[in-house]
Each structure stands twice: as structure tokens, then as C-alpha cells.
Amino acid sequence: MKAFVNIKGAEGATLQMRDVADPTPGPHDLLIAVKAVGLNRSELARPVAKPEDPDANIAGMEMAGQVIGMGAEVRGYELGDRVMSMTTKAYAQKALADSRIAMKIPGSMSFVDAAAIPTFFSTGHDALMSNGQLKAGESVLIAGVAAGVGIAMVQIAKAMGARLVAGSSRDAAKLARLKDLGLDLPIQAGKDDLVAACMEATQGKGIDVIADNVGAGMLMSLVNAAAISSRLITVGRLGGFNDTIDLDKIALKRMKLIGVTFRTRSLIEKIAITQAMSADLSASFESGRIKPMVDRTFAFDEALAAQEYMRSNAHLGKIVLTL
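Below the sequence we write its predicted C-alpha cells.
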């Protein structure tokens, strides 16, 4: 089959299409004919694990497609089922996905939209709901709301009954577009006073659940905007990894500061995250209340161009390869 692999080029790591062996499903695996691949920013690192082994360096983290084979212990799936899943080695004509992490695609949803769901919505749900313990009627602030997972968080928060969804970004045009998805309070970073805006919108109480996709440079503003007994979840670090914090304010507000990532999750934890997200959001996906934002599609053989477009930060929403 054809697949894009990370290789070491003359000017650094790059992508190259190669002929590689078809994957063989393990006991719990689905073998999927890939129809669409969602791109994720971490793929720009293009890690090369084993230069001599193209199969080990196939790129990609999520995809959607049709089941064409399965392992002996798979339950609940049939050949021909349309599925979406987080996985590895997704930039390929065929891929494997653990059946316990995969999800069936709603009948009305396209493969392109389905490929935009697994990573962003699992990450967003885990941050807001499992770790942030968001309750209906509470307020949410998403720092870096124009990032892909931030867009998903806006929709998740609204679907789960948040009273107020605030979000910050440096791009005023992107903020304006997100109002149609449920962003109640757009805050332009570098121009608006984030703390004052949040306090005014909550009548001085502060924000209950804060999801930070920025990292360095934001932490104390987010702490100052937080309510008593709030939860601050650090999700992304687009602005850097190091910051300072006033521990006394954390204590006075009795805040919880929580870090999340998939990189240190066990398979059992990933299964639980997917199942929790599916339980809360499947009906919204099915009804169309939640529709992932897809910025642009590229043909499969344009994978390198698609990654460079992602690097440009011109997009708002998911970039998807189609097969």
C-alpha cells in the first residue's frame, strides 16, 4: 500500500510517499480502508524512529474509513462499518485502530467530518468534563480558543450546558467566526483586558473552568480570572513551557491546577477517555448539533503541502487529507 513516512531529508525531517506492507490486525484491531485523515500540529515534528524501517515511521494520529478486516476478539463491528479513530500510522491507504477506541460514524456524517473528531474532541472532553468537572450552568474560559482543540471545546461546553463560554485569541477575525459555534465572550489577546472581561461577564465571580492551550505568558491572567473552587486545566503549550505562578492566589481561590496529555496515557485510559466522550457527545454528533469545523481538504498525495499549510497558522479548524 501507499503511505507517507517521516524521513530525514537534506534540509531536515520531511514526508515522503513510500510503498509499505499492509498492516496485519491484532486480536482487538480493526483493519480500515482509510478515506480521510485528520492532521495534528504535533505531526510537524516528523519524528524518525528507525531510519531503516519505513513502516515504523508512517505519519498520522487519526483517520476515518471503512472496516475491511478485524482481529478475532473484536466485538460490535462488521465488515463495511464506517468508523473514526485515534490511532498511529494514519497517513496510509490502510490503517489499524483498536476497536475499543474506534467509534462508528453517524449515518449522516461524511468521512471528512469524521476524521476531524477523534483527537480534538477526545482531548477537549477529557479536559473540560473528566478533569474540569464542568457542570451545567458553569462558566468556561478557553485560552487559545482558535486552536483546533479550542474550537472543539467551545462546542463541547455548549452541548454540556455551560452558561458562558469565553475564549481568547490574537486573531479578531477567527474570534468572530467562532461566535456562530457558541463563543459567547470573544477576548482579543493583546488588546482586551481578559481578567476584566471575565469578571464583568460573571458579575465578579470569575470563571469556573479554564482550559489553557497557550502555556507560557498566560498563567497568572488565567488565575486572576478564575473563580473560587475553579479548575484550571493546562492542555497545550503553544506559547512555551515555562511560567511563574502566585501560589497564594491558588490557595486563596482553592483552585485545582491540572495537567493533561495523551502521551503518558495507557491503552486502558485511552479507551476510558473515548468511551466517556462518546457517551456524552454521540447524540450531538448524530443530530448535527455538534459539527466539526473543517478548514480545508487536500488530496492524499498533497500531504506535505497540507502540513506546510498547517505550519502557516492560516487555518481555522481541521485540515483533512482525502483518499
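The longest strand covers residues 29-38.
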